[in-house]
Amino acid sequence: MPLYSVSQTILALMEGIPPVPPRGVPKLKSSDRIDYKQLEKLCEIKGLKTGKGDQSTKEAHENFMKHYKKIFQEEKRILPYIPAPTAKIVSLVGPGDDPVNDDIHNIGIYIRDIHGQTSVELALQFKDKLEEFINVLKKFPIHRSHAERRFVYKMMKTMPDLSSQLTREDFRALSRNITVETWLRGTTVIANEGFYIILKGSVRPRCKVYKKMIELVSTDFFSAQSSERSSEEEFFQEKPLTEYRSLLNPHYVILGPWNGFGTLIELPEPKMGSNLYALTMEDDCQLLKINAKEYAKVKKEQAKMEKLIREQLIHKCPYYRNWPKLSVDELTVHIKWRRYPPGHVLVTDGEIIPFVAYIQSGFCKVYREVIGLIKYRLRKMKKKRKRVFMGKLQEKESFGEISVLLQIPFTCTIITGSEVELGIIDAEDMLELDWVTRKLVLQTAEQTFGYLTDEDVQNEYIARQRYKEWKIFKDKIIQSSLDCRGIIPGSGRWSHSWRIKENSKKSSADN
After folding, report:
1. I need a labelling partner for 235 at 20 to 30 A (CA). Which of 135, 252, 294, 375 fits?
2. How far apart are CA 150 and CA 176, in angstroms?
3. What CA–CA distance (Å, rounded) separates 148 from 287?
4. pLDDT tens digits for 324-340?
5. Among 100, 78, 103, which Cα is nearest to 89's?
6. Three-state secondary structure string covering 454-473
7. How far is Cα 433 from Cα 372, in angstroms, rounded to an integer?
8. What pTM was estimated for this model as a whole?
């Protein structure tokens, strides 16, 4: 017994107080994760020894290592309670009681709650939108509000016969002036002056005609979503539809809502009594019409605007400001638009660039390569080729003329610094220009950063390396000073709200 407990017992006996019973060793609690029966079985393996001097046999050791995982019990997972299936309950509803709701077991209700509206509800919504669409189209274009024009634009983009062939600019221009026409049952429409989309009713074509609709690829004069395209050899076929029923898809016989027919290329009127371009109304129909003349006018305006944008792009470049319009037109014909993400390498030092580029938006970074020395541990130095940032190419600047025309390697590496839109002219088109235009380009254009010498690049590299080393040294000294004083910027009393202070200074200055 310890000396402290003996002295405490003696003092207690002298004062007549019974001694404090000695504390027992706490009992060890068995772990719930260990199976002690399996542990005892493992310890009883023959040949298994304990202690430092003893050594187990190879077979006993392998047997122990093979089965020792069994002593660890897996944690039992408590699963949620699932009630046992009950027997079928006989309905005891009286004549005056409320009947049992059978929709409780209808899984369609729960699916609708999860996924939203059903196909029937979506169809009703589309029907309401179609009615609103027709009412908007019945208004004169000048009486439509901005929201109504936007609504017409969105509805037109859902029409497959238009969305597969028109661009976004076409939709925006045509959505301002399209109209709706009402045709009674039994009347005949001659669709040689525009393209029609069926909004209500059904139409039966009276002949099978193949005509170019918008693009140069031959397509059906009337179209359906699941129609089969014919070859370009079948250009005009003015014969009754009954002779082609064996060749036609069933969708050709009657065209329903959201199908289209007609052309956006203005065609001559057919002869008297001809079924060419003719379609008969099976019901009272509402047809959306896009006039071919209006479409031609839109394309003409777009081409004029595109030409103006290209001319402005070239004229605003420093090398082309004093160029005559005739020479600028020689270049604008070959311009193609390209977009590149940030960090895209346009051309590498030592390569012949495959195009001449004019920057419409964004900027590019210009690098020159130099061989520099890099320090390693153990006082070792190694030569390595590195890129040195020399400047930027901003909007309305060009590059690549000299490399393309003279077929000499480019002296810089150009990487996009932001999302860049370029107007490019391929090297093949550039070399095929007339000799006057090529000579004019060579006289006015210059090499990109061609005034830089190797010595300038070396000096720029040394200056940047010195600044980098000085910044590392400065940050290291400042950090060690802060650590010495126990200052942690941004925490405790060293957390400052600079914006509040700036606002308070401004308010005090105003007062």
Report:
1. 294
2. 9
3. 18
4. 999 999 999 999 999 99
5. 100
6. HHHHHHHHHHHHHHHHHHHH
7. 42
8. 0.58
